[in-house]
Each structure stands twice: as C-alpha cells, then as structure tokens.
Amino acid sequence: MKAKNVERKFKWHSIYGQILQEKHLKEAWQKVKSNKGAGGIDGETLESFDKDSTKKLTKLLERLKAKEYKPSPVRRQYIPKKNGKVRPLGIPTIEDRIVQQAVVNVIQPKFEEEVFHKWSCGYRPGRGIQRALQIILWHIETGYNYIYDCDIKGFFDNIPHKKLMRILNKYIADGTVLDIIWKWLKAGYMEEGKFHDVTSGTPQGGVISPILANTYLNELDWTLEEHGIRFVRYADDFLVFARDKKGIKKAIKIVKEVLDKLGLEISSEKTKVVNFNEDDFDFLGYTFEHWRKRKKDGKPYFIVKPKESTWKDFRQKIKAKTRKTLTLNIKAWLKRVNPVIRGKVNYFLNLYKAINMNKSYGQESHCYINTFSNKLLAIDGYIRRRLRVAMIHNHPSQRKGWAMSTKWNNEYFAKVGLIPAFWQYYSYQFGYTIEDYIEYIKEKYRKKHKRKVQKAKERGQNYYNPERVRKMKYAQRLSTY
pTM of the entire structure? Predict the structure, then answer.
C-alpha cells in the first residue's frame, strides 16, 4: 500500500472559497445544531442562535468574505473520567463551531480518501468501535498475539502547534484556511473569568480537533505500514501487533522513534506489552481474555466482554435517570431509561457485529462473547428496583419498592415497554420475542423458587414461615392501591 503521509505534488487549493457559499455555511450550522452541546464564552447557545440563525449566518458570512473573522477563546470545562480524574474540554462559541464544521465538511472527504489509514478508526465517518474490534479480532485470530498496548500522555493537550502545521502543509495549500487553523490553535481559553494562553494542543470539544489529531498521528500509522507492522488506532489509543517477541520489540522501537519525532510522550503507567497466550488486556471498554483450551475437546478459544467498570457506569446512568424526587408517569420514566439501556446494549453488540463481519470475509471465529448473561439479568433487576421506588409517589422507600414487586413484576415492565437489556442483547442475535423472554424469566423464577423451598425442607424448616407470610400479605395489600 502506497504511503499517504508524504507531501502531495498537487496540494488542495480553494478550500476557503468553498466555505464562503451560503448553503455550505447553513449545512455546517445544521450539523452543529444536531450535535447539540453547550455554548461558548459569549453566552450564545444553540437555542438563542437558532431564533435568528438566518441573520446571524449572513453576518458571519460577510465577515468571512471580508476576512474579518477572528476566533474567540474557548470556554474551559472539566468532565469526570472513569479513573476519578477530570478531562479538560474547550468549548468554542457557536460561531466558531460553525466555521470549524464548514472547514471539516470540505477537507474531511479529501483526508478520508487520500490521507488516512484504513486501520485508524476513531472519529471518522463510517468507522468506529465495531471497525476497531474487527481489526483486533482479525489480528488475534491470524496469530498476531504479541501486543503493544500504548497510551500517549496527554495527547490532545501536547500536540506541538508548529509540527502540526508542517504536517497540514503537506496536503493543504490554501493559506487562508491554514491561517484560520493556526488562530484556532492559538485562541487560548477562559476559565473563571481569566484568559489563558496555550502553547500546544488542540482543545477537546472543538469540531476541528478530531481531524487535526488524526492527521497528526497519521504519521505514525503510515510509518508502521511501511515496516509491515499491524496495528489498530482509535484516536490516541492504539495497539500494535506482532507474531513473536522479536517482532514486537521492533515495533516498539519504531513507535517510540515516531512519537519522539512528533514531540509526544508515552504514558509508562498505562502502556504494556501483552502476550495474549497468557495475558489479558483492556481496550475501548472491553476486556480481552487470553487464549485457552476447552476442557471437553481441547479446542482453542478466547473471551471478549465488557469491562467491569462498564457495569458500574451503566448503573450510575440509570440511577441518574430514576431519582425518586421526580413524580412521573410510567411512559415518562421509560423515555428516560430506555435510551440508556438501548445505547449500552448496542455498545455490547459491537462485538457480535464485528465477528459476523469478519466471518463474511472468511475468518473463522474462536471468540466467545456471550459470557455475561448474569450481568445483564442483574442490571435488569437493578433497573426494575429503581423504577418501582421512583413510581411510588407517596413516601417512596426501598421497602415499599420491594413490596410492589408483586404488582410491578418483570412481566408488567416488559409489557408496558421497558427494554430488558438481557432480551435486547440476545434477541438481536437469535430473534427472541418479548414473549419468549417473559416465559424464560418465569421459568427461571419457578426453578429458583422450587430450589428455595427444597433447601428449606432439607434443613427441616417451613419455607412459608410466619414472617415470610406476613411480608407476602403486606405486599398484596400494598399492590392493590
């Protein structure tokens, strides 16, 4: 494959001229609007801009034509990371986002077709988590089981501006656009009313940031390609693969040399070498458990499943949507929780889709992915418990919520439209109906109940003791109101 990180003989001209068309600016505004998000330092929100968008876009276009457009500093905001730390975001003004989107709309198709590598998957149209998983599984299945799991320290904050501009100059000859990109990089940020200058980095939160980041690390992608090294990259997270120790040592040496030239540093505490025949690794929210052999026939297999932290995040998102201080009807509650369930399960299903796509290209799969059914059932139980308490408007409590399980049981929630995570995950793969799910859960409960009664009998106890009967009668009384 011919390298695409070399300087182009015919660079791209007239990019600025294309964004000076009214229809292109309107398209950019519609994209910004659909992406939602908060406003920048000028107080302008998507809602306030939308009220008079035609007039504001006309004025913005006039300033662009007169070359009087000047970017504003971004608004610094912090979002929590899963490790307890925070990630700084730079929120541009609505106007800046529109101009950035207009530039992206023009240059992205060119970069997609003529610059970016096929194994780069982050923040690219038509690619994403599923594509990254396909590549990882393909490499593992074809014997590339020595893996360099690399993380770049503070990547987005540490991209050197001048080096980035030199790389952009390989492809873009439009001086006006390059000048605007430089101004975006140097715009700085506002925090607590104070302006802060920046000497490196692209602000996470800016529309232009992903394509600039991918362009910068495209240098690494094509250098690895030139040396015949397999990899997968998702933004600043990437894996490098080799068949043996010698191959992975060579790959590590090349990675370090390229990153050093780019002025980037590897995060030693987050970077490791994995022998997938013995070691596990995490990537993109999934845990990849190493090769092993089945006991019954000795056939090799490996397991991929969502990381443990994913389930905690799932619960936290449901908890945030089911505050018992709100008094909503069942339809309103379902509108709050169903999108969370659907989004999480669709994320899990990326594994199934990736394996199926690889099978369509002739690759046999040795990967087991349906190993977390109990986790799905547990999250479904948690969601129902949260909803039962939230749906009690008169002094809600866990005790009352437990009592209402007689009335608001699994079948009730399934029939009113709550999406069971367990059902959605397996119905996508095997075509189960919601009725199949209800019957499965009923049978599961019957067997569980039978075991409890039998165990009590073996201990010489009466399962239906006075205390249990009292609780059952309380639940029956409460469920009739």
Answer: 0.90
